[in-house]
What we know:
single chain; alpha/beta; TIM Barrel; eight-stranded parallel beta sheet; 9 helices; 8 strands; 39% helix
Amino acid sequence: MTLRARLSAIDERIADAARRAGRDPGEITRIVVTKFHPASLVRELHELGVRDVGENRQQEMSAKRAALRQAQGPEHAQEPEQGQPLRWHFIGQAQTNKAAAIRRDADVVHSVDRVKLADALHRAAETDQGRDPLDVLVQVNLSEDAGRGGSTVADAQALAEHVLSLPTLRLRGVMAVAPLDEQPAAAFARLAGVAERIRALDPAATWISAGMTGDFEEAIDAGATHLRIGSAITGPRPDRG
């Protein structure tokens, strides 16, 4: 199956799931996760109409953006954002010492999971004068495993309040990954509850980033606005050996 066909098949499933949930498919953003794939795939996705791509590692995101800017030839003289913007979503765990690079190359950061990271992203704005506030989401850990990353459900509201106090960040909503040992629908229902409490703090924080290849239908049922879908669209990861 071609990249175009895989993209079309996923978009049809998203639209069907949205209609079953009584939702408008147009209110759902499909983010194509391109980790481990080359910058050339990002360009091909852009040519197929993709406008939102996601990366898990800062180094890889920065390298791909640089590669797209430096591509040779008159038809590839500029990064594809020109005229038809690409939005780069950083969806991986972030180290505070990478905050400046993440802020430089990401349009959205989905994985703000602690006060120290929020503060580091805020401080990084000092070297990024003139840009709009950085869109961020509070990552919520829906599991009992603290190693999976994310604020606890109990602490998410306090973290959101802290983000709202930082003028160079713009709180967009919440993000989570469904636990491996639980039905996704139950986990996403808990996330929807967290999202509702955060919207009470800021009615503009309407995004719910949830759902991947195996569970995006359940995420749509629970109100997800942003889906993070990788190999079902991009195909198998290239051999990195």
